[in-house]
Amino acid sequence: MITTATCHTTGSHRRHRTTSRSLALALGVLTAAACGGGSRTPRTPPAVPVLTARVESKTVPVDLRAIGHVEPISTVAVRPRVGGELTRVWFREGDVVPAGATLFTIDPRPYEAALRQDEAELTRNRALLKKAEADLARYATLVERDYVTREQYDQINANVDALRATVAADQASVDTTRLQLGYCTVAAPVAGRTGNLKVKVGNLVRANDDQPLVTINQIRPIHVAFSVPPRFLAAISARGRERIVLAAVVPGTAGPAAEGELSFVDNTVDEATATILLKGTFANRDERLWPGQFVDVTMTLGEEPDRLVVPAPAVQTGQQGTYVFVVTAEGTAELRPVTVNRADKREAVIDDGLRAGETVVTDGQLRLVPGSRVEAREATP
């Protein structure tokens, strides 16, 4: 019995060791699998596709940009100087008229009649004056011979003086009436484009009415007014009498900019805006500039040689200021702080942070971080 019990115990122990060995082997396999999966090499992020451009060193113009307002060189509100019925309009609304062109005709008949009356009165009084002067000559001889008294002579002399004054007054009245008759024909005081016609044929108009008959704007040439900070006044004054070129573009329009030149610098700085008013004169032969428009004005003050220039989209703004991404020789992106002197829609002039010939990213910066691999493609101009 003892032998049998011993053998049973030994068999149980062997089964236990076999089970333990199988379990340890399984755990070892799982552990090896787990350790093997964790030790794989991480995948390298793909290169970021970007557009690039070279940093150039070149001569750049010194441009000053501002928003301008187009103004006619002269604006004339045409008002009648005499009253009467408007009998004819000699132009169509919106026509370009030369200076002196006939615009309106006011019924001249009342003034023609008044002129005839004044001329008749003048003729009558001239005849009376001629008779009085003849009498005065006769009385001068008679008074010397004591045929008439000095008092009678003085009376004739006074009558002559009074008639001379009357004739002068009549002549002034004739001139006034003739002038009013001339005002019945309303002419253009300046050359320009006519606006909306306020009064039609058949209406009665009043002299010097508040409502103008039409407004004429002189738009060839035309003015563009704009304001700049006073710090640019020294650069403008340094040009002296040299021609300062201006360019004006109506936002949202195609085609080349209109060219003009600076023609006026105000003599004081506006305290409300801390700016100084300038005006440019533009030939405006094609009439692209229209009174009342707002335009983008560029004033060229000179040129600067050997300045570093990059496309404007390359310059980004962050919490620490302006920066660009530079593509290194290893094909990675390097964040580079830069100092921008000035910029427009196309180019930015860089004072510090770049060297000529370096490559900067112009598109795709949002996906970049310092050290990112880049797949660079040069941007087309």
Task: Report on the architecture of this protein.
There is one protein chain. Strands 1, 16, 17, 18, 21 and 22 form a 6-stranded mixed beta sheet that branches. Strands 2-11-14-13-12-15 form a 6-stranded antiparallel β-barrel. It has helices spanning 2-38, 109-144, 150-183, 233-238; strands at 48-54, 56-72, 75-78, 84-89, 96-97, 102-106, 185-187, 192-194, 204-205, 214-217, 222-228, 245-249, 258-270, 275-282, 294-311, 316-318, 321-327, 333-337, 339-343, 347-352, 359-363, 374-378. It is elongated. Strand 13 (258-270) and strand 14 (275-282) form a beta hairpin. By secondary structure, it is an alpha+beta fold. It starts with a helix and ends with a strand. The chain folds into 4 domains: 1-35; 50-57 and 306-378, conserved putative lor/sdh protein from methanococcus maripaludis s2 fold; 64-73 and 217-304, Efflux pump adaptor protein, beta barrel domain (Elongation Factor Tu (Ef-tu), domain 3), CATH 2.40.30; 78-215, OB fold (Dihydrolipoamide Acetyltransferase, E2P). The longest helix has 37 residues, at 2-38. Helices cover 30% and strands 37% of the residues.
A few lines on this structure:
This protein is an alpha+beta fold and 381 residues long.
